[in-house]
């Protein structure tokens, strides 16, 4: 795999504040990428000029810059970036993180040793706006800074099952690398119905090839325009509306629908998938129609605790009490 070509795909928008630091961390990798494909999604700040200047300052750095005429949004912009990649292995990259200098080397080594892996994600450390390290308490039974609802030991390599992806995506796109066949399948089948990284994991899971390496290989930056896990921001009033209270369940149903489209035979054979679908549909009905007692019965099921925290479950019950018919 020493001669394997490696692409880094980066979708950027108004990223001038942190972009140079991220590019520097890629340039200083112990294993150099073959190309760094950056697509600027019609930025309004100085991102485009920064990219042009960076390419001039470091002509040996394999930077390829594309600029969209109009804003596509982050999901379609990553699709655009992947369409311009040519490597045998692809790495997704955010504009505001910092890669540890062995990220590419460590992850490509894993792919070399494990040909059964088609999509690989790493863990990360947390930093603030100024690059200072942050600590986040990890909930019991979780790992990867509360992204993954399973305990995984440090440095362990763990396979992620398709059924686990129903409830949550276990990683961010910027933590992932994958083989070229996944890139081609993504380009052909991505619809934008669910986030691009979640969809990539479903693609890998359809072949049993999604794995998690619990090793911190990049620094994930939290700042005013970013939140861990891309959670939807909402005020108290919004949180007590049916559309908000059923948001997670509807997204999980979308994930199931996408998996059925990608792997119909495997989806049909999965009892866990059918049970999850029934639970999610009933949960939406119970919340929207104020069926409080049915919702309380659901609260005792493990599916609900996979979908939401106890605090969110109690909020659902309170909402249903207000809307009892």
Shape: globular
Output the CATH topology of the largest domain. Spore Coat Polysaccharide Biosynthesis Protein SpsA, Chain A
CATH-level-4 superfamily name of the largest domain = Spore Coat Polysaccharide Biosynthesis Protein SpsA, Chain A
Strand content: 15-25%
Order of helices and strands: EHEHEHEEHEEEEHHEHHHHHHHH
User: What ranges have pLDDT less than 50 throughout 5 or more consecutive residues?
Assistant: 230-237
Number of domains: 2
The helicity comes to: 40-55%
Largest sheet, in brief, is: 10 strands, mixed
Shape-level CATH architecture of the largest domain: Alpha-Beta Complex
Tell me the number of helical segments per DSSP (H or I, 4 or more residues long): 14
Structural class: alpha/beta
Overall mean confidence score, pLDDT: 92
Radius of gyration: 21 Å
Task: Indicate the CATH class of the largest domain.
Answer: Alpha Beta
How many strands in all? 10
